[in-house]
Design a protein that fits this description.
Strand order of the largest sheet: 2-1-5-4-3
Helix content: 10-25%
Number of strands: 5
Largest sheet: 5 strands, antiparallel
Structural class: alpha+beta
Radius of gyration: 15 Å
Shape: globular
Distance between the termini: 52 Å
Strand content: 25-35%
Number of helices: 2
Number of domains: 1
Length: about 100
Amino acid sequence: MNFDVCLVRLKMEFAIVEFTADSSVDIVATNWLARNKTVCYWPNVKKPAALEKVLKVRAAPGSDWAQFDVRVLHEYGTIVNVITNLISLPRDAYA
């Protein structure tokens, strides 16, 4: 019996980015990235729980979201992969 092997490209839904203004690092949804992934829209929320919520559902950027210059360090398919890899990311990867 023959089986065809299909390669499916995993959609990268989250990324670890470095904000170039202050060298801080955070997790973003890839749909928050623009201009060849050099600009990130950031939600207008104050509480960490609200930020976590919009991140998990990959909310579409709103007109009131701020824009920041970023450098994408790595992209991942799931939020679990991002968190796991952020914890183990060597400091020199974003220094």
